[in-house]
């Protein structure tokens, strides 16, 4: 297997790094994951325009993006409290940084409730090269640093609300 699940339980889960073919093994972890992974398996995913796509109202939605990558020293680790991120690369390579939130000691400001984000200036503990057909799931306990690449990254980020709706 290329990669796999690292977790203890849902409330203290650590990130997932795997390939699209293995999404069925994770669907039971959260009531929104089935819908999120179904969206990521759409046959027309590569043709979708850069935009936001409702999947289950505000509980599960996707954002298709095409962004220029940046260097490792240009970004900051980020964390979210309200949403779990499922990030899948459609083209390019996104070398995402990761670190447990509990190990982050250098916040750059307060948590932004409206944007559901807080940034940290800590260095990542690991780098995950996410390529075509691969995905990473970041829970609220995971700090992550996306968009690390020397080229263009075409990706989908599915946001899944932490609580049940």
Q: In words, what does this structure look like?
A:
This protein has one domain: Jelly Rolls (Sandwich), CATH 2.60.120.370. A hairpin with a 3-residue loop joins β3 and β4. The strands form three sheets. Strands 1-2-10-6-12-4-3 form a seven-stranded antiparallel β-sheet, with helices on one face. It has a three-stranded antiparallel β-sheet with strand order 9-7-11, with no helix packed on it. With 165 residues, it is mainly beta.
Output the keywords.
165 residues, 1 helix, 3-stranded antiparallel beta sheet, Jelly Rolls, single chain
Spatial strand arrangement across the major sheet: 1-2-10-6-12-4-3
> What gross morphology would you assign?
globular
Q: What value does the average pLDDT take?
A: 91
Quickly count the helices. 1
Number of domains: 1
Task: Give the SSE map.
Elements: E1 4-5, E2 16-19, H1 33-40, E3 51-56, E4 60-68, E5 77-79, E6 83-91, E7 94-100, E8 118-120, E9 126-130, E10 134-138, E11 142-145, E12 152-161
Antiparallel strand pairs: 1-2, 2-10, 3-4, 4-12, 5-8, 6-10, 6-12, 7-9, 7-11
